[in-house]
Amino acid sequence: MLSFENDYSEGAHPRILARIAAANMDQYPGYGSDEVCESAKARIRGACGDEDAEIFFLVGGTQTNQIVIDAMTAEYEGVVAVETGHVNVHEAGAIEATGRKVLALPAHDGKMDADELDAYCAAFLADANRDHMVWPGIVYVSHPTEYGTLYTKAELEAISDVCRRRGIPLFVDGARLGYGLTARGTDVTLEDLARLADVFYIGGTKVGALMGEAVVFTHRNMPKHFLTIVKRHGALLAKGFLLGLQFDELFTDDLYTRIARNANVQADRIRAALAAGGYEMPLVNATNQIFVTLPNARYAQLSRRVRLSFWERADASHTTVRIATSWATTDEHVDRLVALLRDTLTADDLL
Amino acid sequence: MLSFENDYSEGAHPRILARIAAANMDQYPGYGSDEVCESAKARIRGACGDEDAEIFFLVGGTQTNQIVIDAMTAEYEGVVAVETGHVNVHEAGAIEATGRKVLALPAHDGKMDADELDAYCAAFLADANRDHMVWPGIVYVSHPTEYGTLYTKAELEAISDVCRRRGIPLFVDGARLGYGLTARGTDVTLEDLARLADVFYIGGTKVGALMGEAVVFTHRNMPKHFLTIVKRHGALLAKGFLLGLQFDELFTDDLYTRIARNANVQADRIRAALAAGGYEMPLVNATNQIFVTLPNARYAQLSRRVRLSFWERADASHTTVRIATSWATTDEHVDRLVALLRDTLTADDLL
Amino acid sequence: MLSFENDYSEGAHPRILARIAAANMDQYPGYGSDEVCESAKARIRGACGDEDAEIFFLVGGTQTNQIVIDAMTAEYEGVVAVETGHVNVHEAGAIEATGRKVLALPAHDGKMDADELDAYCAAFLADANRDHMVWPGIVYVSHPTEYGTLYTKAELEAISDVCRRRGIPLFVDGARLGYGLTARGTDVTLEDLARLADVFYIGGTKVGALMGEAVVFTHRNMPKHFLTIVKRHGALLAKGFLLGLQFDELFTDDLYTRIARNANVQADRIRAALAAGGYEMPLVNATNQIFVTLPNARYAQLSRRVRLSFWERADASHTTVRIATSWATTDEHVDRLVALLRDTLTADDLL
Amino acid sequence: MLSFENDYSEGAHPRILARIAAANMDQYPGYGSDEVCESAKARIRGACGDEDAEIFFLVGGTQTNQIVIDAMTAEYEGVVAVETGHVNVHEAGAIEATGRKVLALPAHDGKMDADELDAYCAAFLADANRDHMVWPGIVYVSHPTEYGTLYTKAELEAISDVCRRRGIPLFVDGARLGYGLTARGTDVTLEDLARLADVFYIGGTKVGALMGEAVVFTHRNMPKHFLTIVKRHGALLAKGFLLGLQFDELFTDDLYTRIARNANVQADRIRAALAAGGYEMPLVNATNQIFVTLPNARYAQLSRRVRLSFWERADASHTTVRIATSWATTDEHVDRLVALLRDTLTADDLL
């Protein structure tokens, strides 16, 4: 069945598979201590314009959020995130599992407001009971956010500025970073992230790799003994070279951004079809996640022909769903979806 | 200096001290496995009207909240509490330290609404992503709340009813329970709590004991090997008999409720003085915590003569403070406070 | 450089890569909820002769150990393992990271003795202080062990019998299970494991897969909400179908055991060469790990031509190293190693 | 019934009780931020001869061990202790509950050997797999040990020297410190501990206080935000002044050492009686814990008249028990015990 359920439905970009296959019987030392990982790191440092960046490859996003937040905070500290942030809602308590509280700020279309962050920190420090509270120890934002929205460079600079004034590291979840960097109208580059964040990651799982996230610690601030910390979390991949091979390939000839752009282009085609069809879109962004609110019967009808993601109940008779494109989305798939969206409800659908 | 800073400023009711002194050179086995603890438990079971209740004595409130919530939930579960709940704000992450997330609901004068709780659970179960989220595993309410407010019996029954329909245990934080049970107009009794909650505690630290909280597991639901769990948390008191002696005394001749009532009576006197003086009280309750919003200069003036608790900044020029009475508050202390509250600001105060 | 450093130096068996490539643009639902995972699980159930077995695919071994031990024990329990067990020594504290203590028994060539296990449990229960101690909550053994040794069926039955009499689940780490099942002289089958263990895993990472471990819960004892528990550990692979594809292929036409056998055959060739060369082997087994004690100069010489694994310092002038073969080891590689082992030290080597 | 079961069977030294009673209706600020705590700290700094020492009062020993070890180690580190150490055996996994592994060294009458510690650290650093292992992050010794034995000054200096050369803090558990400092023949003083340890505690619970341990961080190395860390562990006593009052009194006029000495003197009387009676003492020390191996029938007989502590089964027909004296042990109690020890078994006892 046709699927726009998420951006991790397919395997990997063919160049990634070819690269793995070509190296298949080469022998690599374990745990990422190999030359291809070094090569991939060098390419990423180059792309970030940060020769001091320290890079570590992990397998998945929740894993990365858990480990980075744990390793970069003291036990009396927590992570400040917006209430809709992945770490606050959709990680099954992975952050709390390592003893860290999520300190939730209001979300604005999925984004954090720098002034609200600053006010939160100021109020915390002014609170006479602060020693009985969880200290803000790291700031977490997603780019793109869980709603596909993007920070402008000015917005990120404002957040980064608050963090630096207050001595709190800024962590950017880039699970879908490729789609953010290549969106229409964005002014945020990889170099900007490397300049403004203290740690961020470049998502591979959702952008062309089989799996893998490249964590970039800027300004030489990788926690001491980070490999041991990763092992302690059960997250150290024995065949680390598999991650190295993939990121080495993704950062050769701009593969990462080129394949990411496709998702946004295809999403724009779907957005156009939705707009033309008079569909209700509660929030519009320029990346690969499209949110549309459907009458329940319409949702049921579509679900028989295409897999979409349940997002939330809008009201008793409407459901908001997510349509996700990816590096792998083809013109033909979009054509089929657009055709389905044009179909009207039939009596049969209402059964 | 005169203090209305909190309800744990003094030692213990004289009868408690006398009881400890009388037993001082008796020899007790360790860790609460003594006869006086058994006697205290029997008295509490009687007062609760629940002959099956299992009781464990702990030292402090945050400790109790941490251990009960940890022990009564699975690792994939969290605790539902209002956003102003002690476990969510003022325990320095003690709940998260044992790997549990606080799932925050709106607070209404510090209280949880049963319908909102039910709606939260319903929405959770209806969410297609629920397996990636923290399951509601226990419900936490405080009685009195952190704002000194009280649930009515009907409100507690409604919450208990939601919990039982949904198979989620109800935990009542009774750190100030004595003040709640003896408040003007309350219709909630200890028997009601034992009937409606799955676990609750009777606060001693703030109600006449040197320290100690009596955790009551109703319906035979004390977690297996609870003593070992307490030890693992570093919370098992070697001289458990000290807790037994205190609760045995508190539950002899109604000492617990008799001394608790004093706090509410004295608080009413202060509330009357505040009302007469035209002070702004953002929230009025019938227990031992009084909240009053003062111009900052007035707050500074009073702070030179009496210790009050900072609660929160009301606005740039006003501060909300808490005045707390207790079992130990004397007429004379209240007279002095009332006199201070009548004083007008002098030029000297504004320096 | 030639490597016998470990059994995870290469990618995957070509059939595995081909299977992934063939399915690359198919669209799968996330997190292992796909048909290919179901197919793989059915094949594994068949191979185990246990139609009730519940199976979950994870990425790596330490991750699996951490999650299984955490999920199958209460917080007052720990894991009983031999002192040389992977969970006790080489997981960087991953077990303790989730709050579980490793209760170490003596190791006999890496193996646990059933009588010692029984005596440990008996002594624990007879200890008047047991409520202040960590309860034995799960028993962990590796098959093959960290020393490549194997339990006989009678030995496993004896351990399983102790576990069942005492109500403690038995967990078998099968990270190298393929090499154990196909070793000369073993009488332990997959069906035996499914019968004797309460949970075990079939290692893919070291036996032909890119990565992946198939956790088999026998007797319907997968912990409730296990997927959420895995997510909470940051260990839920978005593209779960990648694990399904690999295990579906490994359990088609006995691929798993056929490729595993190669490692043992090649190891036997190396063992023969070592014996012929008069090398000191502190421990001999029938699986893919060979331990040999070398004069330090000889170790240094060999290390310039082949990658071996440091195991431990034998004494001031000798080092014990590990030679590991795998599904990927070729005749040619073994020929080269055997030739190197025949070389004598030259003056140059002693520089 | 007469009890020599432990050193926490009675309440507190009368001067402690009197001090608490005298201050009972004074009003103190919460959480140890009061003047009497400051006074107690000043007295302890004086007694330690370390004007820079930072002191924090906690309630119990396991709690203290858990918090200090957690707060003074990174997550990739563990605690090195002898296998018989309290943290390794009798804390129900409290250390692991906060994610730290106990790295066990051999015990020599309960003591750690400096050379073995050094060799352990050296072997760890020389191990090529060390990044996959738990790093030694703090060294824990008890003085007196769990067997009542004492380090000599030279032994402590040797351990401290290893720790400083290797950059690992030394933590001394002084739950029974008073009995160690006042033992016959010891050359270790409080000043020595303050000089040699990085953190240690002065036990109050077992030496005259109702409860309480004074944690002394020497060399200004109290972890940042330690109060918040304590709160996060659920261990911050609301009425911190109760601990301050007790330690202020214990460190007035040498009360602490004077009352401690009594325990050792009384223990010597019992040891003399045991020796005279031909009892088997598997280990002899100069402090307040006496270990004696009894025929089981004799143990059963004595248990009907005096409470002793089960220690371990010596063999099928013998049990090793512990006799503990304390600050509270009276001449009369010892006389009664000595008389009991002189009694011979009667036929009745063998029933």
From TrEMBL, chains A, B, C, D:
The superkingdom of the source organism is Bacteria
Q: Does the keyword Oxidoreductase apply?
A: no
Residues in Aromatic amino acid beta-eliminating lyase/threonine aldolase domain copies: 16-246
What name has this protein been given in UniProt? Amino acid lyase
Q: Which cofactor does it need?
A: pyridoxal 5'-phosphate
Query: Which Pfam families does this one have?
Result: Beta_elim_lyase
Q: Which SUPFAM superfamilies match?
A: PLP-dependent transferases
A Gene Ontology annotation in the biological process aspect, one of them, is:
amino acid metabolic process
Similarity comment:
Belongs to the threonine aldolase family.
State the taxonomy lineage.
Bacteria, Bacillati, Actinomycetota, Actinomycetes, Bifidobacteriales
One MF term in the entry's GO annotations: lyase activity
Which key words tag this protein in UniProt? Lyase, Pyridoxal phosphate
The record lists the organism as: Bifidobacterium moraviense
